């Protein structure tokens, strides 16, 4: 499992970091761990699956 930070996910999805944090709060992206600052870390495969799903339903 490869973990991605909020910044990495935001860059990959092409959105702002605040949007990634909101997706996590709404359980649309589930974090697997927390970093030293308490910010969520996401599994790369989950993020990739979310991006495919979001594109199918009309965007992120």
Automatic annotation (TrEMBL):
Record's signal peptide: none
Domain HTH merR-type intervals: 4-51
InterPro entries: DNA-bd_dom_put_sf, MerR-type_HTH_dom
This protein's name: MerR family transcriptional regulator
Species assigned in the record: Fluctibacter halophilus
Cited Pfam families: MerR_1
